[in-house]
Amino acid sequence: MRVNTAYRNKKVLVLGLAKSGVNAAKLLHRLGALVTVNDKQKFDDNKEAQALLDEGITVITGSHPVELLDEGFELMVKNPGIPYSNPMVQRAEALDIPVITEPELAYSVSDSTWIGVTGSNGKTTTTTLIGLMLNEGEGAGHAYDAGNIGIPVSGVVQKATAADTIVAELSSFMLVGIQTLHPHIAVLTNIYEAHLDWHGSRENYVKAKMRITMNQTADDYFIMNWDLPEMHELAKQSQATIVPFSRQGAAGARATLTDGWLCFDGERIIEADALQIPGAHNIENALAAIAAAKLSGVANTAIVAVLSRFTGVKHRIQYVQTIAGRKFYNDSKATNVEASTVALSAFHQPIVLLAGGLDRHLPMDDLLPLIQAHVHAMITFGETAPLMETLAQQAGIPYQRTENVKTAVPLAFAQSNPGDVVLLSPAAASWDQYPNFEIRGDEFIAAVQALAESEEA
């Protein structure tokens, strides 16, 4: 971390805690700022706020009092999830108080090289692959994954040196709040419809994504998905050197799928069949990661080693185990129909699908063609179980309702045959039964392990 005295004695409000807020407050406190933290959760139930108070940081909890902004603050560091329509944020802007997000704060004190990754889908997998490839290589420094992947960048920058690389997953929410953040390599995996309720329009959402390249120059690289025509126009907004990747043979791409091989600048690197992560979308993620690794000087042998053993990010079409010829995959992160369509398209084998969860009263019809094509049995649970069963009826496949993910696993095994895939891809959020998708996925993994033990007994 480089010395930055700009925050010394500066009055800063950190709005919203969670991991990013806690780490931002601690970093600012270390830099000598006069830090106040404001979080809506009540103090008695707010362990994060209690810990910060013990460190000498001013803490205000239980509400967001707009009048707090009249106390001479010079900067607001906003939790990325808090929208700009929030009265606190609007008041800050009315008072000309700069509003940034935690990655911008982290970048301002970082002396590491940055690789930034954004996109509607594939961010976490691509970020993880790039970090693994850089660390598999023989470079002098270490690569740290951070950002929206669940590791606050403001914590990582305090240990990362000038020889290191920070591979930051940057959500659109984070990117709206950057000013100087300047990745040497930026990656835009894709752009689809997402978070329009937060951004207000697709145009605003795309603008947020493109902020990843706004400070880049011709000495930097912008890796883009050339299979999406929109990218060709968006590339014109960047000053960086454009590095396209393509799974579908788009002209001009440098990272490509060619004759069954993943290639860079025409050089074969690894056969697509050697990847341990299934699906066309993961070929795209791998191509983006290969481009970033090659531009960083990583040898082919290191790239191949990573792609040959990487079985997926936890809860994202994650391979769990093979039991009696059935492969079990955990895709608990599939909290909507779009994510589950990706998962169902990823496999050529017959699928027993475990699905259901929070009912947001959204249509499920887009799943039907994929269920008809790939699924031969379904186990349902949660509030959307009736909706999933309607799809099963329309597809003409058997289904069975059960209590939860734990009880679904043995039922799915009973419905499966050797050579099948047993896939948890709920197509719904977890909150009707679980605090988050991670706990839901962990229960699935534990149930699969228990099944394996019972089969071995």
UniProtKB/TrEMBL annotation:
Q: Which organism is it from?
A: Lacticaseibacillus suilingensis
Task: Read off the NCBIfam families from this record.
Answer: murD
Under which pathway is this protein filed?
Cell wall biogenesis; peptidoglycan biosynthesis
Q: Which family does it belong to?
A: Belongs to the MurCDEF family.
Example GO molecular function: UDP-N-acetylmuramoylalanine-D-glutamate ligase activity
Name of this chain's protein = UDP-N-acetylmuramoylalanine--D-glutamate ligase
Q: Where does ATP bind?
A: 119-125
- What positions does the domain Mur ligase C-terminal occupy? 315-427
Q: What EC number(s) is this enzyme filed under?
A: 6.3.2.9
The compartments listed are: Cytoplasm
The gene for this chain is murD
